[in-house]
Design brief:
This protein is of the alpha+beta class and 254 residues long. Helix content is 24%, strand content 29%.
Length: 254
Amino acid sequence: MIAADTVEELAGRLDTALTSCADTPSLAESHTFALDDAYAIQAALLARREARGERVTGVKLGFTSKAKMAQMGVSDVIVGRLTDAMRVPDGGEVDLARFIHPKVEPEVAYRLSRDVDPDDPAADIERCVDAVAPALEIIDSRYRDFRFTYEDVVADNTSAAGYALGAWRPVQDVSNRAVRLVGPRTEAVGSTAAILGSPVRALHALLDMCRRRRIPLGAGQIVLAGAATAAVPLGPGVTRCDVAGLGSVGVRGL
């Protein structure tokens, strides 16, 4: 483990990049640190946001694509944290000046109806979910030229920057639903099967990671299960995600 003051130093670098909308070189260019350190940096980064008055609203999963895992040479998903400052209303405006080089991904979101006890080996996270919705996630890596390591991404709170949710619907099987993401100049099509084969598998992967990383999951929080297509640049104009049989959600970049 790296020293506590180094954790704070690196979290400070990422926080400055976030608040100033100015990219920073990969942390790994100047420091050697392990995955445990990366999650410690992420926690310190989150603590800075909470100190400014932000409230945790949920979690997000990354690397839920088998192709992305293979590209990064890993076999685990990664987990980041969402806050109320990241929330964008469905159809709401997004000030692009808040970001460095934002991209957007179509996702499936779950809502937790009660706390999930990570210490309970019999905990059934599926039974703790009461609703599902289409979602958009805005990602914004704080690293210069998109040069980063696996540990860099985790430390940077998995590039979490914003999210929008469509209408909540009763829990249903959303395996292999067609997904279409349309922006002013881009379009991507895919399937919810790209999310670990089925988004519900992401819930179980999340619980496993939260047990290992001591990340709490509370009633009312949302879970972004992962991207159903590759991310596309978020620019001026309307970007919309449609998930077959589930609904749609959109934002307007300004």
